[in-house]
Design goal:
The structure holds two protein chains of two kinds. Chain A contains nine helices and seven strands, in the order H-H-H-H-H-H-H-E-H-E-E-E-E-E-E-H. By secondary structure, chain A is α+β, with helices and mostly antiparallel strands. In chain A, helix 1 crosses helix 3. The chains are: A alpha+beta, B mainly alpha.
Chain lengths: ~260, ~170
């Protein structure tokens, strides 16, 4: 490796990395045409960069392990103190979801009742988030009434999930008759107008805890059931945010 | 999630790629990233946005890696054995896949200071100034490590294809 008389070695390295202005690049290109040894040398360096990208760029496409995301967003001290339910949910959540069609196919779900509830919730979400004036039946201003009313209809005292920490404030809620069972839908909205719905139905069908992420037509949803309720949280929101919201909803409603 | 947390999350794939190239074993690489993220979160309150979030995170990762090498008793500035090069190379079989494998083996024979610089710049696309921040040396030192490292890599790989059973230099 000898410094060329015309260009500094720094210039030549910058040529390799493409971090050089167009004028100088052209000058070096012209010079390399007459200096085959240097041309071979620089081509080898550029080839090193290419080989590194070929070898390691696939890492960028890998799903990020849940533990790594949790180290940042998982309430500081995850996984300690994080229930195994949420740990598994996080792990599932960060798995790449392949084809989206067929998500509602019955055999994709642990039990038939699950997919039915998720489908109801998706439909309710799609229909009501599009509403301007009639998005909810009872406005957030009447939150106290909303809570006592829906507690009575769901047959269990509930606390309204507070998602303000995630930037979502309550718009209000409504009662739905899906599947012939009283069902509550709460709607939240952020400053950008993004809406999130929380769909809660008394769980009479499913005996075991289960959960699932759904991604459908640009809407992400997280479905889970516990001994009290089946829940579906839906919105155009990143998975991590969805999981954070789900945790808050669960803590509020499943007491 | 705060915007800083979001910025960190966005860097995770890049930190993983860099760590994978540095240590090659994917579990060990993710352990390194995990440690890096834990430290970053622990110091997030103290982070001053003078540099980029990217260079700050890569600095933490770099320091952890260097400390790990020291702890493991492998002085970072001494060339490790190039047995890997010899084992992974089959004479007369120089398809593209093999050439790609060769570069990781060849990289492993470089001093840490050259390997880190080559990866930070050639793989992660850091600017020379960012790489200087990450490795805490002047830009001039970055440039000389880059030039020396790339040339050494070229020698190892060129030599390797001719006489794969002998050590390059």
């Amino acid at each position: 490796m000898t410094d060329s008389p015309k260009f500094s070695e720094d210039d030549l390295q910058a040529w390799v990395d493409g971090s050089i202005d167009a004028g100088k690049r052209a000058e070096i290109d012209a010079w390399l045409a007459d200096n085959p040894d240097d041309a071979r040398r620089l081509a080898a360096y550029a080839g090193q960069n290419t080989a590194l990208h070929e070898l390691f760029d696939p890492v960028l496409e890998e799903p990020v392990p849940a533990g790594l995301s949790a180290a940042v967003s998982g309430r500081a001290a995850a996984p300690v103190g994080m229930s195994s339910f949420w740990r598994i949910a996080a792990a599932i959540g960060f798995l790449a979801i392949g084809g989206l069609s067929g998500w509602f196919a019955r055999d994709q779900w642990p039990r038939a009742g699950d997919s039915q509830i998720a489908e109801y919730a998706f439909n309710a979400h799609t229909v009501y988030v599009a509403e301007k004036r009639h998005a909810v039946e009872v406005q957030a201003a009447e939150e106290k009434h909303l809570v006592s009313w829906l507690s009575k209809r769901l047959g269990q005292d509930i606390r309204m999930p507070d998602l303000i920490g995630l930037g979502y404030r309550l718009v209000g809620g409504r009662l739905l008759p899906d599947g012939g069972r009283p069902t509550a839908q709460f709607m939240y909205e952020n400053d950008a107008g993004g809406r999130l719905t929380v769909y809660v139905q008394r769980n009479e069908l499913v005996k075991e805890t289960s959960f699932r992420f759904i991604d459908h037509n640009g809407v992400s949803a997280f479905y889970w059931v516990d001994e009290h309720f089946a829940y579906v949280l839906a919105g155009t929101i990143q998975r991590e945010g969805l999981l954070d919201a789900a945790r808050i909803v669960h803590d509020s409603l499943a007491k | 999630m705060t915007s800083r947390e979001r910025q960190i999350i966005d860097q995770i794939p890049h930190l993983r790629r860099y760590a994978r190239a540095l240590v090659r074993d994917s579990d060990a690489a993710d352990d390194l990233v995990q440690e890096c993220l834990a430290r970053a979160m622990g110091r997030l309150h103290a982070w001053q946005p003078t540099g980029t979030m990217r260079s700050w995170l890569f600095t933490i990762l770099h320091n952890l890696y260097v400390n790990q090498l020291r702890r493991d008793g492998r002085a970072p500035d001494i060339h490790s054995d190039s047995d890997g090069v010899e084992r992974e190379t089959v004479p007369g079989d120089h398809d593209a896949g093999l050439a790609v494998r060769d570069i990781t083996a060849a990289l492993a024979t470089l001093p840490e200071e050259q390997r880190s610089i080559i990866l930070l710049i050639g793989l992660e696309g850091l600017t020379y100034a960012e790489a200087a921040t990450v490795t805490d040396v002047p830009v001039g030192t970055v440039m000389s490590r880059l030039a020396r490292g790339r040339e050494r890599l070229r020698e190892i790989m060129a030599f390797d294809t001719v006489t794969p059973l002998r050590r390059a230099k």
